[in-house]
Amino acid sequence: MSTAMRIAIAGGGLLGRLSAWRLVLAGAEVTLFEAGSLARPAGACWTAAGMISPLTELIHSPYEVYRMGLESLQLWPRWIDVLERASGQPLHFRRNGSMVVAHQCDAAQLDQFQRDLQRTLGSAATKEMTPLDAAGVSALEPDLQHFSRGVYLRNEADLDNRRLLGVLLDELRRLGVGLVDETAVDCEPHAVVLHKGGERRTFDLVIDCRGMGAKAQARNLRGVRGEVMVVETSEVSFQRPVRLMHPRYKLYAVPKPDGTTVIGATEIESEDLSPISLRSTMELSSALYALHPAFAESRIVETSVNLRPATPDNLPFVRIVEGLVQANGLYRHGYLCGPALVRRVAEAAGLVTEVTTE
Q1: CA distances from 201 to 1, 30, 186 (A)
Q2: Do residues 202 and 190 lie in contact, with contact meaning Cβ atoms separated by under 8 Å?
Q3: Predicted local confidence at residue 352, as pLDDT
Q4: Do the beta carbons of residue 127 and residue 150 sit within 8 Å?
Q5: Is the N-terminal amide bond of 265 cis, ω within 30° of 0?
Q6: pLDDT of 106-143, one tens digit each?
Q7: Per-residue model confidence (pLDDT) at position 41
Q8: How many CB atoms lie within 10 A of CB 77?
Q9: pTM of the model
Q10: How open is the CA angle 203-221-245, to the nearest 5 degrees?
Q11: What are the residues whose beta carbons fall under 8 Å from the beta carbon of 38, sequence distance 6 or more?
């Protein structure tokens, strides 16, 4: 008779999949419930760009997000290595850093960005960022040779998030995780209740990772609308994520292994999930053209809209009561803070998922 802890995880996005994977490796018997399709997630994890960028987020986010991002940057390479060896598939984790650029007319914003980092990090900032002149920008990103200034953030990373989600799903199947999709549930201590039919299934522990699906049960959770475009062109090729300083738009461009570039992202205090607006399409396109005029002939192959689950202070949380763990509030920091939050979930479950000397 099995003595493994029986754990139900509600929510099959990034947090739910990573938690299920780490906990089954730690010896738990895990069942994963997802309201939609596990094969094609509908949550923010699918529309995200997969950036792991603690420094660029530090200016606009609480310091705890930066700290969790550094923790995740230590965990991601180890976890990716385990997944690649188990699956035999490359996951395209890339630690080429990221670049921030600005046109001459917006140089003051680039200066302010550097001052803000130096004020927050002190002398450590000089180890994290390298100011670039035109030659430095061109050496790292030849297609950005028209920029006279930039900043290189050497310790940032990114990954192919959609491939990761697929490989995680395959690995959960291989490890014997119970996968129950198209099944919405409510979470209670020691139980999940199926919306359809009202069946109540009991477990030793329930972990609620439902994102916006948990809004009725999670205190002060709100949705923040985000819109992204995916474009395709052979005219521009980046080696790392690039951010453009602009007085009106926050633009990032993240190259993907299939030759596309993910462009984002708007940030709108709304829980509207209707298709991307004309205004957002024009603003993103205008900023992208400002980054490189050759993007004018790129093809928009996808537009996506999603809601990021956020708390009033935009910090993720893990709340614990007997028999129930709530993990939520990743906002736009899913891939940045995900592994660090999963580690806290595992600690709440009383399971050690890895031996570490950190």
Answers
A1: 19, 13, 11
A2: yes
A3: 58
A4: no
A5: yes
A6: 999 999 999 999 999 998 888 899 999 999 999 999 99
A7: 87
A8: 12
A9: 0.94
A10: 125
A11: 12, 32, 169, 179, 181
Q: What is the pLDDT of residue 355?
A: 39
Report pLDDT digits (tens) over 222-267: 999 999 999 999 999 999 999 999 877 779 999 999 999 999 878 8
**What confidence score (pLDDT) does residue 354 get?**
54
DSSP-assigned beta bridge partners for residue 243:
100, 252
Helix and strand totals (H; E) in the chain: 10, 19
Tell me: pLDDT of 358 over 50: no
Q: Please tell me the distance from the alpha carbon of residue 358 to that of residue 355, in angstroms, as a whole number.
A: 9
Q: What are phi and psi of 156, to 5 degrees?
A: -90, 165
CA atoms within 13 A on the CB side of 19: 36
Q: From CA 315, how far away is CA 231, in angstroms rounded?
A: 31
Using DSSP, state whether 348 is helix, strand or coil: helix
Identify whether the C-beta of residue 77 lies closer than 8 Å to the C-beta of residue 94.
Answer: no
Q: Is 106 exposed, middle or buried (0-12, 13-18, 19+ CB in 10 A)?
A: middle
Q: Could you tell me where the DSSP H helices lie in the chain?
A: 14-25, 44-47, 54-58, 63-87, 107-121, 125-128, 134-140, 161-174, 278-291, 334-349
In the chain, the amino acid numbered 179 is L
Residue 248 has a pLDDT of 77
Distance CA 319, CA 114 (A): 35
Own/partner pairs for 61-67, CB < 8 Å, 24+ apart? 61/314, 61/333, 62/313, 62/314, 62/315, 63/120, 64/315, 65/314, 65/315, 65/333, 65/336, 65/337
Non-local (6+) Cβ contacts of 22 within 8 A are 342, 346, 353, 354
- Tens digits of residue pLDDT in 42-99: 889 999 999 999 999 998 899 999 999 999 999 999 999 999 999 999 999 999 999 9
Q: Which residue type is seen at 153?
A: L
Q: Pick the residue with more confidence: 242 or 356? A: 242
Q: 179: helix, coil or strand? A: strand
- In angstroms, the CA 175 to CA 162 distance is 20
